[in-house]
Amino acid sequence: MGIVFTAEFWTWSRVLEVMGLIIGLLYLWWEYHADWRMWIASMVMPAISMWIYFSRGIYADFAINIYYLVIAVYGFIVWRRGAVSGKKKKERRPLPVTNTPLWAWGVAVASTALLWGLLYWLLGTCTDSTVPCIDAFTTAASIVAMWLMARKWAQQWLVWFVVDIISSGLYFYKGIPFYGVLYCIYTVIAVFGYIKWLKMIPETNH
C-alpha cells in the first residue's frame, strides 16, 4: 500500500483519474435518481477521460468521449425540455421514464454490431491498440447506451451493466485502477438503478 503515497505514483494522469472517479460517482448518484444534473457531470467527464484514455492507448474510448460530450448536450436539452402534454400540446412536464420500445431494441442491436465491426477494423488497422476487440465493443455499446439514456428508457441500465463489467476488467488490465474501481461500482449500481427506474415508470406505460 505504501506505493500509493509515493510521488512516482501520483502523476498528473493519476490525479485526473481520481478527479474522474469523484465526478463519476456524482454522475452515478444523479443517474440513479434520474436527475437532469447528471448531464452536467457528463460534460465534464469527457475532458478528463480523453487525456487518460489517450495516454494509455485506449483509443476508441478516447474518441467516444467526443460523442459523449455531444450526447450530453442533447440529453440535457431533452430532459430539461420535458414532454408535451395537454390538449393544445402546450403544457410541458418532466420527461417520464419509460420502457424501451421494440423498434428501439432493433436499432440498438444493429447499431452495436455495426459500430463494433467498424471500430474493431479501425483499431486493428490504424492504431497500436493491444485490446482492439474489447475496446471496440465497449465503445460501440456505450454509444448505444447513451442514446437509450438520453431518451430516458429504463433498459439503458441493462446495456450499461454489460459495458461496465467488461470495462472494469479492461481498466485494471491497462493499469487504470481507480477507473477499474469506479466501473465495478457502476456494475453494481446498474442493477439497482434498473430496479429503481422500473418503479418510476408511470402505470399507463407498463
Short summary of the structure?
This protein has 206 residues and is mostly helical. It has helices at residues 12-32, 38-55, 59-81, 102-126, 132-150, 156-173, 177-200, and strands spanning 83-85, 91-93.
Q: Using DSSP, what is the number of strands? A: 2
Cα gyration radius (Å) = 18 Å
Euclidean distance between termini CA atoms: 50 Å
Structural class: mainly alpha
Shape: globular
Largest sheet: 2 strands, antiparallel
Describe the structure.
It contains seven helices and two strands, in the order αααββαααα. It is mostly helical. It has one domain (about 1-85, about 95-205). The chain has a two-stranded antiparallel ribbon with strand order 1-2. Strand 1 (about 85) and strand 2 (about 90-95) form a beta hairpin. The longest helix is centred in the middle third of the chain and has 25 residues, at about 100-125. The radius of gyration is 18 Å and the shape is globular. It starts with 11 loop residues before the first helix and ends in a 6-residue tail after the last helix. About 35% of the residues are buried. The mean pLDDT is about 85.
Keywords:
globular; 206 residues; mainly alpha; two-stranded antiparallel ribbon
How does the SSE layout of this entry go?
Layout: H1 12-32, H2 38-55, H3 59-81, E1 83-85, E2 91-93, H4 102-126, H5 132-150, H6 156-173, H7 177-200
Antiparallel strand pairs: 1-2
